[in-house]
Amino acid sequence: MSAEPRILFCNCTYAQVVSKDVKEAVLRKLCDSGVPFEAVADLCEMSARKDPSLQRLASGGSIKIAACFPRAVKWLFASAQAPLSIETSEVLNMRTQSADEIRAALERSEVIPNLPSGKAVQPPAAELSTVATA
């Protein structure tokens, strides 16, 4: 496992449940920081397609994910047969945290695991938007 956690940013393109201002501020801070990160259009859509990239992301060591509710992110990865490690994953919730809170958490080299323990179950609709697939 690498010393620095990997960073994943979800743009929540299709569900549009994250404030545009928060998403833009977090993305701007990531770009300005010079720290390597990976950005994806929409984790919900990737999970629905069972995108193989989720396997790579889940199995690559410690990770911080700027997305939405930790339980929803855990379920999205599990649904795509790419479970996240509870011990090495931290989810930053752009729906409830400010851009400054998320920026501070991303700047820390330490991962503070916050995925709920137990079986990954589908979150209620309020936490996870339904994505229509073609």
Which secondary-structure class do the elements indicate? alpha/beta
Give the beta-strand count.
Answer: 4
Radius of gyration: 14 Å
Biggest beta sheet summary: 4 strands, parallel
- Global geometry: globular
Question: What is the average per-residue confidence, as pLDDT, rounded to a whole number?
Answer: 90
- Unreliable stretches covering 5 or more consecutive residues: 130-134
SSE order: EHEHHEHEH
Number of helices: 5
Strand content: 5-15%
Helix content: 25-40%
Strand order of the largest sheet: 2-1-3-4
* CA-CA gap between termini: 37 Å
What is this structure, in a nutshell?
The chain is of the alpha/beta class.
Topology:
Blueprint: E1 6-10, H1 20-33, E2 38-40, H2 43-48, H3 53-58, E3 63-67, H4 70-79, E4 89-93, H5 99-107
Parallel strand pairs: 1-2, 1-3, 3-4
